[in-house]
């Protein structure tokens, strides 16, 4: 029996309600054969859980963290405050402000604590996963090959003309 591989990507989100967005990123990590873990960690509702998660992330073997949150989306920034691992922030689309609040909360980090900010919603979740794959591909040939194959398949799938 094979033991499950140790996750190299941590996917965290502020609420169960973010999963509908963040699952698209996880589907891409699956497709690229990248081991990851998924947790609900809220900057506001579970601040101690966040601090513990981020502070222990590197020693637990994580290499990249993807953090999705909506509204007053402090999760990616506070996560980056606790760890020097790369943190990619996904602004989840909020009902009231369509995710512009999430985007601005995540993107406007003070110099010194970076968060790589992606697009609002599903595209951002997918691209966060692909960026994580790019980072991991620097030291993992298998991921590098699978990422190149993904890009080639994507290119091949674009029709010359609309149907
Ligand atoms: C944020 O508040 C979460 O990231 C979520 O996007 C938003 C709403 O959370 P719920 O009220 O749906 O739990 O912390």
Description:
Its EC number is 5.4.99.18. 44% of the residues lie in helices and 15% in strands. The protein is of the alpha/beta class and 163 residues long. It has one domain: Rossmann fold (3-Layer(aba) Sandwich). The chain is globular and about 45 Å long. It binds 5-O-phosphono-beta-D-ribofuranose. 5-O-phosphono-beta-D-ribofuranose binds next to strand 3. Residues 14-15, 17-18, 42, 69-71, 92 line the site of 5-O-phosphono-beta-D-ribofuranose.
- Counting DSSP E segments of at least 2 residues, the number of strands comes to 5
Could you describe the largest sheet, including whether it forms a barrel?
5 strands, parallel
State which percent range the strand residues make up.
15-25%
Residue windows where pLDDT falls under 50 for at least 5 positions:
none
What is the top-level CATH class?
Answer: Alpha Beta
Give, in spatial order, the strands making up the sheet with the most strands: 2-1-3-4-5
Q: What helical percentage do the residues reach? A: 40-55%
- What is the CATH architecture descriptor? 3-Layer(aba) Sandwich
N- and C-termini, Cα separation = 47 Å
**Average pLDDT reading:** 97
């Amino acid at each position: 029996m094979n033991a499950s591989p140790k996750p190299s990507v941590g996917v965290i989100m502020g609420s169960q309600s973010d999963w509908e967005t963040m699952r698209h990123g996880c589907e891409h990590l699956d497709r690229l054969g990248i081991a990851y873990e998924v947790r609900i960690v809220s900057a506001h509702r579970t601040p101690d859980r966040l601090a513990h998660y981020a502070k222990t992330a590197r020693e637990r073997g994580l290499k990249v963290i993807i953090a999705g949150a909506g509204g007053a989306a402090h999760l990616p920034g506070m996560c980056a405050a606790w760890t020097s691992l790369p943190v990619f922030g996904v602004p989840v689309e909020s009902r009231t402000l369509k995710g512009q609040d999430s985007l601005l909360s995540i993107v406007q980090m003070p110099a010194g604590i970076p968060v790589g900010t992606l697009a609002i919603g599903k595209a951002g979740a997918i691209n966060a996963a692909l960026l994580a794959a790019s980072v991991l591909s620097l030291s993992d040939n298998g991921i590098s090959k699978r990422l190149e194959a993904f890009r080639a398949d994507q290119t091949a799938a674009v029709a010359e003309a609309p149907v």
